[in-house]
Q: What sequence folds into this?
């Protein structure tokens, strides 16, 4: 099992930046894929970004490409989501997720991930 704890959310203005952190504990493997999803009120989980635990591949949703960056600090067992040029439509609860039995190409499906954090709220005011 993998335990995930997010932090770093908050209330910011449009154009500001935030960095979310996801502390990872428990068993990890280079085969895992780590993802960030978000959920706005009344909506489904939306894929935001993902990267392989080995660090070789990164994926982004079109809506955040060029503004958000996913990264990982191996020494701290932490995954980050750097969010720049935030927009009001980025407002959501952001979740960190881990896929321990990853199927190639399915990084944007939330049912691919079997471990989830509790979420952190990001609110962007206009």
A:
């Amino acid at each position: 099992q993998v335990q995930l704890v997010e932090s770093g959310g908050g209330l910011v203005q449009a154009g500001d930046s935030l960095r979310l952190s996801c502390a990872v504990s428990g068993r990890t493997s280079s085969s895992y894929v780590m993802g960030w999803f978000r959920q706005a009120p009344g909506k489904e989980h939306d894929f935001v970004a993902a990267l392989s635990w080995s660090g070789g591949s990164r994926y982004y949703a079109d809506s955040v490409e060029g503004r958000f960056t996913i990264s990982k600090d191996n020494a701290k067992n932490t995954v980050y989501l750097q969010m720049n040029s935030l927009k009001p439509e980025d407002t959501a609860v952001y979740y960190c997720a881990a896929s321990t039995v990853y199927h190639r190409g399915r990084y944007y499906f939330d049912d691919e991930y079997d471990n989830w954090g509790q979420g952190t709220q990001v609110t962007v005011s206009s």
